[in-house]
Design goal:
The structure holds two protein chains of two kinds.
Chain A lengths: L5 H26 L4 H13 L2 H26 L7 H18 L5 H30 L3 H20 L25 H5 L15 H18 L1 H11 L1 H6 L4 H17 L1 H10 L10 H11 L4 H24 L5 H17 L1 H19 L1
Helix pairs in contact in A: 1-2, 1-15, 1-16, 2-14, 3-8, 3-11, 3-12, 3-13, 3-14, 4-5, 4-6, 4-11, 4-12, 4-13, 5-6, 5-11, 8-9, 8-14, 9-11, 13-14, 13-15, 14-15
Chain B lengths: L1 H11 L13 E4 L9 H16 L4 E4 L5 H11 L5 E4 L4 H7 L8 E4 L9 E6 L1 H15 L4 E8 L2 H17 L4 E8 L8 H13 L4 E5 L3 H11 L3 E6 L10 E7 L1 H11 L6 E5 L6 E3 L11 H15 L8 H4 L6
Parallel strand pairs in B: 1-2, 1-3, 3-4, 4-5, 5-11, 6-7, 6-8, 8-9, 9-10
Antiparallel strand pairs in B: 10-12
Helix pairs in contact in B: 2-9, 5-6, 5-10, 7-8
Classes of the chains: A mainly alpha, B alpha/beta.
C-alpha cells in the first residue's frame, strides 16, 4: 500500500513540482529577455521580506484557506462546488446586513453575528444548487457555475439599489460602524511588544481560518457525520445501503461548503474593506479549487497550499511593481505555471518518485 | 515544510536591485487593465505622450485586486514618486483615507471630483455634455427615426452617458425613439464584443440606424456590427472614427489623456482641488477628421457647434444622471 514514506508524499513531491514550475517560468522570463533569477527573488522577497508583505501574503492566504476548505468539504461528498465565488459574494451581503443593522459596541460581539450572517447567506446560496442536485439531479457543477453569475447580478442590483451609499458614485455600501472593526495583526501583536506593519490587511480572520481548518478536520475524521460524508463520497450506493441518506448528505455537505466560502467575507468585507463593495471575491472562489487540489483535500495541505497561493498573489504584485518590464500578464503566466505544476501535473512527478522509492526499497531488502 | 522554508529563505536573502529615481510621476491603472482600448488606455496614452515630449520617465502598475489599491498608493508615496495619478472612481474611498498620511505627495485621480484633501487633485468629466452633442448628430443623421444606445456595465456613470445622449436626440426632435441596452451587470460587460454585436443586431431589427456605444471593449463589437450591417455608429472615450472609416459617424471623446498629461506636466507643483473637464474647456468633445468628414455633414456640424457654444455659455444645461439618479427623458 505505502509506495513511499509520508514525508515524500507531503513535502518532497510538492517541492519538486514547485522547482519544476520555477524552472519553466524561468525559461519563459528568459524568453522575453529578462533576468529569471532576479524575477523569482523579487517574488519571494516580495511575499516574505517585511511584516507588511507577510501581512498581505497572510491576508490572501486567509481567503484561499476558506475557499479551499469549502471546495474540500464538498469534494469529500463527491461534489465539485465551483460556486465558491458566488457563495462568498452573497455572504458579503449577509455580513453587511448584520453589521449595518446595529451600532456594534465591540468587535467581539459583532464577529459571532457577522459569522452567522455571512455563513447563513453563503449556505443558502449553496443550498439551492444542492437541492436541485439531490431532488432534480441537476448537475452541481453546472448549477453552481450559473449561481456565480446570478450572484454577480444580484450584487450589482443590491449595491446600485438599496445597499448603495447615497454619497458615493461607486457601487458600495456605507462604512460599517467603528465598533465592528476587526483587529489587524498589528493591533493584535502590539500589546505583546511585537512590531508588525500597520497598513497590512491581515487580521484576526487568519486565526478564524486556522480554526475552521481544525473544525473541518474534526468534522470529517472525528464525527459520525464526517464519516457519513466520506462514505457517501467513496461510494454513494454503498452509503445508501448502509442507511445514509443521499439527500441529507448532499444538502449538509453543500451547506457547510457554502458557509465556509462565506467566511471569506469576514476577512475581506469586515476585516479589510469595512464596507461592502461589488467585486470583493476576485477569483478566490476559483483559486480555492486549485488550493484544495494541491492540498489533497486535507486541512493541513490546504493551509500550506493557501500560504503558497497567498505568496504568489503578493509576490506577483511586488514583481510587477519592482520589475516594470514584467507585465501583469507575465506575472499571471508565472502564477499559472506554478498552479499547473503543483496542482494538475502532480501525477507527472509522483510516478517517477514512487519508482525511485520502490527501487530504493528493493535495494535494501 | 522545512525544506521549502529553507529554500525560500535562501532566495529571500538575495538583494533587491530595483533602483527608484526620486520625484518621477507614477500612474496606477484600475482593474480593467492598461490596454482596455478605452479609459485606461487613454490614460496610458497621456502618460506616454508626456514621457516622449519631456524625455522623462514614469512608473506604472496595473492592479489585480482591491486590496492592492491602498498597497500601490502607499508604495508609490513611500517610494518618493510625485505626483501619483490613478484612473477610476473606485480609488475615491481609499485615496481619501491614504492621502493625509503623505502630505508631501500630490495625488491626482480621474473620474473623482468630490474629495476634499489639500494634496489631491480630482478630475471629473461632464460625459453627459459630450453625449448630448453626439446625440444631436445621431438624431440628424438618422433616416429611420430610431436611434440606439449600448452601455457597458449598468452603473450610474454609463446611465449619465445614456441620459445625455437621449437629451441630445430629443432636442432635435422629441418624437424620435431611442432604444437603450446595457451589456451586463458584471465587469465582463466592458469586454464582450460578441454580445455588443448581438445587441446591435437586435436594435437594428427594431429600426435603429445610428448606434452609440459607451461600453469599453464591447464597443468594438458594436462598431464592427454596425459597419457590417451598413448603419452608422458612434465611438466613445478615444477617437474611434478610424476603426471603420465612413461608418463611424463621430466619437464622443473624453480626454482622459489630457487630464493625465496635465497632471504629469505640472509635476510636484500640481494644482490641487476639484476640476470638471467639460465641453467648455475641451475636456469632452466630438471627433471630426478625414474618416468621417463625408458623413458628418456641414448641417450636422453647424447644429452640434451651436449646441456646443450654448452649453459652454450656459444657455443649455444638460442634466447629469448622477446628480439625482434619474433621467428626465427616456
Amino acid at each position: 500500500m505505502d509506495k513511499m514514506p509520508k514525508w515524500a508524499d507531503v513535502v518532497l513531491i510538492p517541492l519538486i513540482s514547485l522547482c519544476l514550475a520555477l524552472i519553466v517560468s524561468g525559461f519563459v522570463v528568459l524568453a522575453i529577455g529578462e533576468d529569471p533569477i532576479r524575477a523569482i527573488s523579487i517574488m519571494v522577497n516580495g511575499a516574505l521580506s517585511s511584516t507588511n508583505k507577510i501581512g498581505y501574503t497572510l491576508y490572501y492566504a486567509t481567503n484561499y484557506m476558506f475557499t479551499g476548505l469549502a471546495v474540500a468539504v464538498a469534494f469529500h461528498a463527491r461534489m465539485f462546488n465551483i460556486g465558491g465565488e458566488g457563495q462568498a459574494a452573497i455572504s458579503g451581503v449577509g455580513v453587511a446586513v448584520v453589521l449595518l443593522a446595529f451600532d456594534w459596541p465591540h468587535w467581539t460581539i459583532a464577529l459571532p453575528f457577522a459569522i452567522l450572517g455571512g455563513g447563513l447567506f453563503g449556505a443558502i446560496w449553496a443550498a439551492i444548487p444542492a437541492y436541485l442536485q439531490a431532488r432534480r439531479d441537476s448537475h452541481i457543477v453546472i448549477t453552481t457555475i450559473m449561481f456565480n453569475y446570478i450572484a454577480a447580478a444580484m450584487m450589482g442590483f443590491l449595491l446600485n439599489g438599496i445597499l448603495k451609499n447615497p454619497n458615493s458614485q461607486v457601487a458600495e455600501s456605507v462604512n460599517f460602524p467603528a465598533g465592528a472593526h476587526l483587529p489587524t495583526i498589528h493591533e493584535m501583536l502590539a500589546p505583546l511588544g511585537i512590531g508588525f506593519s500597520k497598513s497590512a490587511p491581515a487580521n484576526v480572520s487568519f486565526l478564524l481560518a486556522l480554526f475552521c481548518a481544525w473544525l473541518v478536520w474534526f468534522l470529517l475524521w472525528r464525527t459520525r457525520l464526517g464519516y457519513a460524508i466520506r462514505a457517501f463520497g467513496h461510494s454513494p450506493h454503498a452509503a445508501s445501503y448502509a442507511g445514509i441518506s443521499a439527500f441529507k448528505i448532499t444538502m449538509i455537505a453543500m451547506i457547510i461548503s457554502g458557509a465556509l466560502a462565506g467566511m471569506l467575507s469576514i476577512n475581506v468585507v469586515m476585516g479589510e474593506q469595512e464596507r461592502l463593495i461589488q467585486f470583493f471575491v476576485e477569483g478566490a472562489g476559483f483559486v480555492g479549487i486549485a488550493v484544495a487540489l494541491m492540498g489533497r483535500n486535507h486541512p493541513i495541505g490546504i493551509i500550506l497550499a493557501a500560504l503558497l497561493f497567498g505568496m504568489l498573489a503578493q509576490g506577483g504584485f511586488e514583481l510587477q511593481f519592482e520589475y516594470p518590464e514584467i507585465s501583469k500578464e507575465m506575472v499571471l503566466v508565472i502564477q499559472g505555471t506554478i498552479i499547473l505544476f503543483t496542482g494538475a501535473l502532480d501525477y507527472m512527478v509522483r510516478k517517477p518518485v514512487e519508482k525511485i522509492f520502490a527501487r530504493l526499497r528493493e535495494g535494501q531488502s | 515544510m522545512t525544506l521549502m522554508q529553507k529554500f525560500l529563505g535562501a532566495a529571500a536573502t538575495m538583494a533587491l536591485t530595483a533602483g527608484i529615481a526620486a520625484a518621477d510621476p507614477a500612474i496606477i491603472f484600475d482593474l480593467g487593465g492598461k490596454f482596455d482600448k478605452s479609459f485606461n488606455e487613454a490614460a496610458f496614452a497621456g502618460a506616454t505622450r508626456w514621457a516622449e515630449e519631456t524625455g522623462g520617465s514614469f512608473r506604472e502598475i496595473e492592479l489585480t485586486s482591491e486590496a492592492q489599491r491602498e498597497q500601490a498608493l502607499r508604495r508609490f508615496a513611500e517610494g518618493g514618486f510625485n505626483p501619483v495619478v490613478m484612473t477610476g472612481f473606485s480609488f475615491a474611498s481609499v485615496l481619501d483615507a491614504v492621502a493625509p498620511d503623505y502630505p508631501d505627495t500630490k495625488f491626482a485621480v480621474i473620474d473623482v471630483n468630490w474629495l476634499d484633501q489639500p494634496n489631491v487633485r480630482g478630475v471629473g468629466f461632464a460625459e453627459q455634455e459630450g453625449s448630448y452633442l453626439v446625440g444631436i448628430a445621431a438624431a440628424m443623421a438618422s433616416k429611420s427615426g430610431t436611434v440606439s444606445f449600448i452601455g457597458g456595465m449598468d452603473v450610474p456613470l454609463i446611465q449619465a452617458f445614456a441620459c445625455g445622449y437621449v437629451q441630445g436626440v430629443k432636442s432635435v426632435n422629441p418624437d424620435l425613439v431611442v432604444i437603450q441596452n446595457m451589456t451586463g451587470t458584471t465587469p465582463a460587460a466592458w469586454n464582450d464584443p460578441v454580445k455588443g454585436g448581438e445587441l446591435t443586431k437586435a436594435q437594428i431589427g427594431q429600426g435603429s440606424d445610428v448606434v452609440y456605444a459607451a461600453a469599453g471593449g464591447t464597443g468594438v463589437g458594436v462598431l464592427q456590427t454596425a459597419a457590417d450591417e451598413n448603419i452608422l455608429s458612434i465611438g466613445v472615450d478615444s477617437n474611434q472614427n478610424h476603426l471603420f472609416p465612413g461608418k463611424v459617424l463621430t466619437s464622443m471623446m473624453k480626454r482622459v489623456d489630457n487630464a493625465v498629461y496635465e497632471a504629469f506636466t505640472q509635476g510636484v507643483d500640481m494644482e490641487t482641488g476639484n476640476f470638471t473637464m467639460n465641453v467648455a474647456n475641451g475636456g469632452v468633445d466630438y471627433a471630426l477628421d478625414d474618416n468621417n468628414a463625408e458623413i458628418f455633414t456641414a448641417e450636422i456640424k453647424t447644429a452640434v457647434d451651436a449646441a456646443k457654444a450654448a452649453i459652454s455659455d450656459g444657455s443649455i444645461s444638460v442634466h447629469d444622471y448622477r446628480a439625482d439618479n434619474t433621467c428626465p427623458v427616456k
